[in-house]
């Protein structure tokens, strides 16, 4: 074997570039990554809304020995607790050996995804069709939602205050729902519209049925037929829509992509692809040195507002309870704490290379991506992690053989986005975004690499255990 040239030595010792996990990981590690993704795909199929994600996660947590959090109770090292906030966000904690005065370690991911929410008064009939009117939630490209199979998910609070779960369109025996589109033969005027204006938000109305009830004396017979179905199956009246949270999501299960099955096709990768690895890293903990807290939160896609989003006090209140139980100054605890904001980044797509700055973009199969800052244009709306904390995270990943890369969200004047990092930073906690690169982000169906998902899990595992 020939000796390396001077230039080759300099390049090896001093230069940096993204490295493919497929070339670094052993065959055994790649097999582990594929096995880990099987569990993730089951999670995706059972957690298409934040309520479903909380329910699924709590069941796994109980199986792993977690107990419901109790106020004013003193917990000892190794105790495992969960706290549910209004059925739409969840905190898991494992108490560590060290006093929380030394800080806690936090992973924060969101479990809401873009979708079509039903309006408060959604059901109407028009020219032989019954429709549900929707109001889209989060940043979607409206033209992507017509003509794909949709499933109806959610919860209804009926007149007698009964809570009823709805899930139609996922089983093979279920019907699916559908938003119509204009045929190309009639779209001469529509053809000149931009992608953004081609499908108005008010036209994202899902087809619910066409058959009337058998009564010639009443109007809106098709609407009444839909109401009769909902009454028979769920005990609903039309007024119950006002106290419901129902939404349309893409129907169908997560699937492998490609001959090599290296990618996962699914709705909701953003951000359940980070929530699941964080959950699994938490469930695997025994008695950590530092208290570890995982928060699976709601409302990130619309600014983290509302009392189930992180732009509110429920995480802070929980941390105060942890500090109080150990008679620790909460401000000192927060100042010593650190957080991985577990959120996705955009994966470089060569078909749209003009939108990316390739040297600073996340690449497929190159591992978990560290995003120092998000925001838009002049870093607006970001926390921008410090050099010191970036150094700690970088060393942590290198020391634990985690395949990682750095990236930002598109070109300076073109890209941008937000995460929960800024709301964690508001508590005086060191925080940086760490997560999975996603293809077709915010589309009804997105794609991720199994190797990237697994290395994200290994990153969270290393963070909690070291």
Detail the topology: elements first, then pairings:
Elements: H1 6-14, H2 21-24, H3 27-46, H4 50-63, E1 67-68, E2 80-85, E3 89-94, E4 105-110, E5 115-126, E6 129-137, E7 150-157, E8 163-168, H5 195-198, E9 206-209, H6 221-234, E10 244-250, E11 255-257, E12 263-266, H7 269-283, E13 292-297, H8 314-325, H9 330-335, E14 338-341, E15 345-346, E16 368-371, E17 375-376, H10 387-399, E18 404-406, E19 416-417, H11 421-425, E20 430-435, E21 437-438, E22 446-449, H12 450-465
Parallel strand pairs: 1-2, 4-13, 4-14, 14-20, 15-21, 16-18
Antiparallel strand pairs: 2-3, 3-13, 5-6, 5-10, 6-9, 7-8, 7-10, 11-12, 12-22, 16-20, 17-19
Structural summary, described in words:
By secondary structure, the protein is an alpha/beta fold. Helices cover 28% and strands 23% of the residues. The chain has twelve helices and 22 strands. The strands form five sheets. The protein has a nine-stranded mixed beta sheet with strand order 1-2-3-13-4-14-20-16-18, sandwiched between helices. A six-stranded antiparallel beta sheet has the order 8-7-10-5-6-9, covered by helices on one side. A hairpin with a 2-residue loop joins strand 5 and strand 6. It is globular and about 85 Å long. The two termini are 38 Å apart. The model has no long low-confidence stretch (mean pLDDT 94).
Tell me the overall shape: globular
Strand content: 15-25%
Strand order of the largest sheet: 1-2-3-13-4-14-20-16-18
Q: Mean pLDDT, as a whole number?
A: 94
Relative helix content? 25-40%
Q: In angstroms, what is the radius of gyration?
A: 24 Å
Q: Tell me the total number of β-strands.
A: 22
């Amino acid at each position: 074997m020939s000796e390396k040239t001077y230039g080759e030595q300099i390049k090896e010792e001093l230069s940096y570039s993204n490295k493919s996990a497929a070339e670094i990981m052993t065959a055994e590690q790649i097999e582990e990554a594929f096995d880990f993704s099987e569990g993730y795909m089951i999670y995706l199929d059972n957690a298409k809304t934040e309520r479903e994600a909380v329910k699924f996660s709590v069941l796994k947590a109980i199986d792993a020995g977690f107990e419901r959090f109790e106020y004013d109770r003193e917990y000892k090292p190794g105790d495992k607790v969960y706290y549910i906030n209004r059925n739409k966000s969840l905190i898991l904690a494992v108490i560590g050996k060290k006093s929380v005065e030394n800080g806690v370690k936090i992973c924060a991911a969101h479990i809401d995804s873009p979708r079509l929410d039903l309006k408060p008064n959604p059901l109407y009939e028009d020219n032989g069709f019954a429709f549900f009117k929707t109001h889209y939630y989060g940043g979607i490209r409206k033209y992507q939602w017509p003509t794909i199979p949709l499933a109806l998910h959610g919860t209804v609070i009926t007149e007698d205050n009964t809570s009823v779960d709805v899930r139609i369109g996922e089983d093979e025996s279920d019907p699916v729902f559908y938003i119509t589109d204009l045929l190309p033969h009639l779209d001469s005027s529509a053809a000149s519209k931009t992608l953004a204006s081609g499908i108005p938000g008010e036209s994202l109305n899902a087809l619910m049925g066409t058959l009337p009830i058998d009564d010639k004396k009443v109007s809106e017979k098709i609407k009444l037929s839909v109401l009769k179905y909902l009454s028979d199956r769920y005990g609903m009246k039309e007024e119950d829509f006002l106290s419901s949270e129902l939404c349309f999501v893409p129907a169908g299960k997560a699937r492998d992509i490609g001959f090599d099955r290296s990618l996962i096709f699914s709705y909701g990768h953003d951000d359940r692809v980070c929530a699941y690895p964080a959950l699994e890293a938490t469930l695997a903990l025994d008695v950590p040195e530092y208290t570890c807290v995982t928060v699976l939160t709601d409302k990130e896609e619309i600014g983290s507002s509302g009392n189930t989003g992180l732009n509110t006090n429920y995480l802070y209140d929980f941390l105060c309870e942890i500090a109080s139980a150990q008679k620790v100054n909460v401000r000192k605890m927060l100042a010593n704490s650190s957080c991985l904001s577990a959120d996705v980044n955009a994966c470089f797509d060569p078909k749209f290379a003009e939108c990316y700055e390739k040297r600073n973009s996340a690449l497929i199969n190159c591992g978990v991506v560290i995003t120092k800052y998000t925001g838009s244009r002049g870093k607006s709306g970001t926390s921008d992690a410090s050099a010191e904390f970036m150094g700690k995270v970088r060393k942590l990943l290198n020391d634990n053989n985690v395949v990682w890369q750095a990236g930002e969200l598109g070109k300076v004047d073109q890209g941008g986005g937000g995460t929960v990092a800024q709301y964690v930073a508001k508590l005086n906690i060191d925080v940086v975004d760490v997560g999975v690169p996603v293809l077709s982000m915010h589309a009804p169906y997105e794609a991720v690499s199994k190797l990237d998902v697994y290395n994200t899990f290994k990153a969270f595992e290393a963070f909690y255990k070291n």
